[in-house]
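sry for the spam today, last one i promise. struct tokens for design, 349 residues
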């Protein structure tokens, strides 16, 4: 259930932090805390309002027991139906259990094997997330984009901020599979393409992650050549390689080398946190006796454009027949389905 006393206590603590003038020396942290406080205020107002409405409906129902009145009975029935519908909508609020749900999301798309078709599919997925963010009025920043050889992209990384960005987009982690008639095949045969989507929360420096600087190789180069359309060709790019894990992060969109370096370090910290969380989840799965497939073998969703149209999530069973609407950004049914599925999985653990 929604913990009203706990949320009030959290809001009180946030208000004290926000009132401290020194907080605003770190605009990123200040923005994150004020956004969290605003959201908690809205949540409290909503749940307190629902409590008042439920109390009023109960009082009216008690009056009906003493003095039946068809008009009042219809009013109470309509209010109870409205309350039930609102509670169902608010149920999703209780499913954002990840501690980083409110953080911005760092989302990367990587083309799989399959050449031009897979690179085109990676760009289609990137467009899908950009459209979803636009529809939800969530700001997007490009961090890195590598163009494909003939079409599409080899990879791209974007930052999406806004209401529960990571909490909503963590549903997208995994391999996405496309089945269609290839526009790049002269015989117009059916092709299957794959792309990997990685999503991690952007984390601040205070998060407990011990990174040895000696374990990170830093390479600096000029952004040039066939970079993506969002790449700033005149800025100095930075590539960080975390040697123990093999994680590579590139940033080439900021105006200066130092800005690129700062962003790249934030992305690296976020990727290492995601790796740490994945290792913990794998350990829990081993304790339960479950097998965890390798990431490239873990197809989470299929998008079929031929011989019929359908998008199906293989974890949750959610299906949508209008594949084009999904590719145009209508992914909320899959996000909501994942939240409910993850809650059931967590309860069964």
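last one done:
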């Amino acid at each position: 259930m929604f913990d009203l006393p706990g949320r009030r206590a959290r809001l009180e603590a946030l208000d004290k932090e926000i009132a401290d003038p020194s907080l605003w020396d770190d605009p990123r942290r200040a923005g994150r805390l004020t956004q969290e406080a605003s959201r908690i205020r809205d949540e409290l107002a909503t749940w307190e309002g629902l409590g008042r409405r439920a109390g009023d409906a109960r009082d009216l129902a008690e009056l009906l027991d003493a003095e039946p009145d068809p008009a009042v009975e219809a009013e109470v029935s309509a209010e109870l139906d409205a309350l039930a519908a609102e509670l169902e909508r608010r149920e999703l609020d209780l499913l954002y259990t990840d501690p980083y749900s409110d953080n911005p999301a760092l989302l990367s798309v990587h083309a799989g094997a399959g050449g031009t078709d897979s690179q085109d599919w990676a760009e289609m997925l990137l467009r899908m997330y950009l459209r979803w963010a636009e529809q939800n009025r969530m700001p997007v920043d490009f961090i890195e984009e590598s163009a494909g050889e003939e079409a599409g992209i080899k990879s791209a990384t974007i930052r999406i901020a806004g209401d529960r960005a990571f909490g909503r987009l963590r549903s997208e982690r995994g391999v996405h599979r496309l089945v269609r008639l290839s526009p790049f095949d002269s015989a117009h045969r059916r092709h299957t393409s794959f792309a990997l989507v990685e999503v991690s929360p952007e984390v601040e420096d205070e998060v407990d992650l011990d990174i040895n600087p000696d374990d990170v190789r830093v390479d600096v180069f000029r952004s040039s050549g066939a970079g993506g359309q969002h790449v700033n060709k005149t800025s100095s790019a930075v590539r960080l390689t975390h040697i123990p894990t093999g994680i590579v992060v590139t940033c080439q969109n900021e105006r200066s080398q130092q800005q690129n370096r700062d962003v790249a370090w934030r992305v690296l910290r976020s990727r290492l946190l995601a790796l740490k969380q994945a290792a913990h989840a794998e350990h829990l799965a081993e304790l339960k006796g479950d097998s965890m497939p390798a990431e490239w073998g873990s197809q989470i969703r299929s998008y079929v454009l031929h011989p019929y149209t359908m998008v199906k999530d293989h974890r949750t069973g959610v299906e949508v027949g209008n594949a084009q609407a999904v590719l145009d950004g209508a992914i909320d049914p899959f996000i909501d389905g994942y939240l409910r599925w993850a809650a059931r999985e967590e309860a069964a653990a």
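Confidence is low (pLDDT under 50) at residues 290-295. ok im logging off now
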